Amino acid sequence: MTTTPTPPLRYVYAVCRPFGGVLPEGAAGITGEPPRLLHHDGLVAVVDAVPAEEFDEGPLRARLEDLDWLSATARGHDAVVASLTAVTSPLPLRLATVCRDDSGVRRLLDEGRDRFVRALERLDGRVEWGVKVHARKEATAGPRTPAGSPSGAVGGREYLRRRLRERDGREEARRRAEAVGRELHARLSAYAEATAVHPPQDSRLTGDADAVNVLNAAYLVPRERAEGFVALVGEVADSDGVRVELTGPWAAYSFAGIAEAAEPGTGTAGPEPSGPAPEASGAASGPGGAREGAA
Questions:
Q1: DSSP 3-state assignment of 85?
Q2: Half-sphere exposure (CA, 13 Å, Cβ side) for 220?
Q3: The pLDDT of residue 109
């Protein structure tokens, strides 16, 4: 007795308007193959055929607990969205937005049409830039306290004075970096149509042990203003014990829900959404993306 293979599912990376040309050569998604464009009633879904053995609801719940798998999937997802940014202004969807088949993708587009259209109009011709301001730890450390324990009352007092100077130096350097960050954010905001300030990143997570993050912001910038935006960042980069980091241009992940607050998606539990995914019918509720029931 033979078992009929389960048909592949549809992984949806993003939604965009129709655009001329094709995806950049070499664009590959989570399967290692180029995605395809599914046109439907004035919208385009960027989709990939993925194995049900990994992406159906039950297996996907288990996969989302595998950090290596999750990281590789996120990289493939972001690579496709980044390639789209070179040719259009995409609306990124949540990681692990999966539909049963092409009909399910069309239903997803139909049910989310109003939100998709508003968001795409808002993002058209705009990209996201990221700016981080760091206080350099070498600038915050102050005079180095000699190794070893102090001896005697004089040594003890001198040791405490040095420790206080170190603490004061760290606090002063952080205040200076925060002031630079506030001023830079205000000036950059003049170039942006929207901003998003994220929590500072922990240096233990970024791998940058030599700096303390004091500003972690994203800016939605019209493409025609990008040159001035980048030049302004360059004016203050790496000065006064402060390191400024510029990333982008990116698809507008931080502003994907700008037209309307994202509604809860349906499907398996997963990571924080990168954008709104409209509710899909015939599936259990959860924050991991839209999952269609069988047609």
A1: helix
A2: 18
A3: 96
Q: Is residue 236 domain-resident? A: yes
227 φ/ψ angles, rounded to the nearest 5 degrees: -60, -45
Q: What's the pLDDT score for residue 162?
A: 66
Beta carbons of 160 and 198 less than 8 angstroms apart: no
Could you tell me where the DSSP H helices lie in the chain?
52-55, 57-63, 67-85, 102-111, 113-123, 137-140, 152-189, 203-206, 226-236
Of 254, 271, 287, which closes a domain?
254
The domain tally of the chain equals 2
Diameter of the chain by CA atoms? 89
What pLDDT, on a 0 to 100 scale, did the predictor assign at position 2? 60
Residues of the chain with pLDDT under 50: 140-143, 145, 259-295
112 within 8 A of 264, measured Cβ to Cβ: no
Residue ranges of alpha helices (H) inside 86-199 are 102-111, 113-123, 137-140, 152-189
Judge if 86 and 138 occupy the same domain.
no
**Would you say the C-alpha torsion 63, 84, 223, 226 has a positive or negative sign?**
positive
Q: Residue 287: is the preceding peptide bond cis (ω within 30°)? A: no
pLDDT of residue 24: 74
CATH number of the domain that residue 242 is part of: 3.30.70
